[in-house]
TrEMBL record:
GO terms for molecular function: sugar transmembrane transporter activity. The chain crosses the membrane at residues 118-136, 156-178, 185-205, 211-232, 244-264, 270-289, 351-373, 393-409, 416-438, 450-474, 494-514, 520-538. SUPFAM superfamilies: MFS general substrate transporter (SSF103473). Keywords: Cell membrane, Glycoprotein, Membrane, Transmembrane, Transmembrane helix, Transport. PANTHER family: FACILITATED TREHALOSE TRANSPORTER TRET1-1-RELATED (PTHR48021:SF96), PTHR48021. Its main location: membrane. It is a multi-pass membrane protein. This is Major facilitator superfamily (MFS) profile domain-containing protein.
Amino acid sequence: MPKTKNEKYYRVASNHQERQRNWDLMKPTSWGQWNGNHRRLQNTESPCISTCTTATNLSSLGEFQSNSTMSSQRKMKDNNLRMVVHEIEPLQKKEADEKLEEPCVPPKTNFVRIRSQLFATLAVSWVSLIIGYSTAYTSPAQASLELDFGFTSLEISWISSFMPLGALAGGLGGGTLIENFGRKWTILLTNILFLISWLTISFAQTYMYLYVGRIITGIAVGIGSLSMPVYTAETIQPEVRGSLGLFPTALGNVGILICFLSGTFFQWRALGVVGGILSIPFLIMVWFIPETPKFLMSKGQDEKARKALQWLRAADADVDKEFLEMQKIQKDSDDNHESILVLFSRNNLKLLSIVLGLMLFQQFSGINAVIFYTTKIFKESGSELKDSVCTTIVGVVNFVSTFIASLLIDKLGRKVLLYISSSSMILSLGVLGAYFYMKNVTSIDVHPLSWLPLISFMIYVLGFSLGFGPIPWLMMGEILPARIRGPAASISTAFNWTCTFIVTKTFLLIMDSIGAHYTFWMYGIIVTGALVFSIAIVPETRGQSLADIERKLAGVRTRRISSIANLKPMPSTC
């Protein structure tokens, strides 16, 4: 039955009144009221609960017959829609900003939640095991090399020193590799180089093959030392980055221990075969881990980056906030893209100097000289224990101490462990110097103190592994800004291995020139400088995301934004 004109009029008027009531409810008196009003309207059964429905109801005014009335209502509709858009757009922007700024509860870090990160860290840290094995190789191999090739001490020192020389070259080239080919594939390349180097050493017929094999080993060591901490820093969530970040050091110490133990049974050629065998698990595991989300995002592969992040944080983890934060950082990095000269800006140069300082003190503590020549040092100390037994004991302490550090680093922080580390090394180097002074300079009988070198070495290695062993590499991945991380890490790694070369090449020369006592005291004085440097210069990074660290060191005040990898999404109310 057709409606009369009056019926049409009353129906339209009723719709208009209802629309006006809903608009009055929806219109906020302040920003904070908008979201609550909007949700309240969504929970009603009114036909006018959304902008689209409002527009639909407004269109019903077209039933007015008067052209002037229709024109007036169209203007009202347009004005209302403009008001809605005007209100919603800033609100959406504000909500997006608040989502990044709001603090969140630290995620659960049980095994189920971090098992993917654990596997990825184990896979890339295996390169550290091979690095540790390579570093310790000359100590147990020295006697059999001298027997087969008639090497002098100077020639043996070159076999030791060729590895850090190769590592210097690998460190310089590694930055370009990780920026162009990715962290994962660069790490995989190191494994191939390790296989080639150990095969060359194992089947060497002349000393030249040994030299070439050690140089290739060094190149792999340099590239691996650079790419490994960058991968772990970019994949591990802040709450466990300290503990899992010590995996490389732990496995490096395992490699040293394996080499020392193998040296009690095998000669130099068989030791090379063992090194090649150790490369096989590394080759297999790396195939099953993803590229880092940060690298994928830097190449514009956001979807792959999100999948990689989801794999690392568990399938049911909420990665939205962390992913948004990564996108924001990447956008800022892209917008501020500058030449390599940005590396030498005031703030970046300061951060690079901190990393270089840590690398300097790490190596000039004398650790690699001690590891390279442990057997020789114990032989000269006059210890009643066999030098091979003492060397193995030091390797075991080196291995165990890393696990102690992994339990403490996220509780005490980086700086406290650096204090403990340097203090322990100062004490042990001072005692070692005093022992060799009494033995070589005075007429004091040190036979009753023959146990002292072993205890001192144990304290020295324990102290080093607690702090100055792992923390410089860990902080290299933490404090270097994302946009310079590749080249800065390359410079840092090359500098580290340059220091290693200087220390290992000069250690025996210095001992022969000024005596073991002055040599150990000299390193003790350097470590005293390391303690002062740690107190005055090194920043604390415990429990902070890479984004927080970068903004804090750039002088920007920020609120704590934790990784939300393991938080469940909040139920939606609107």
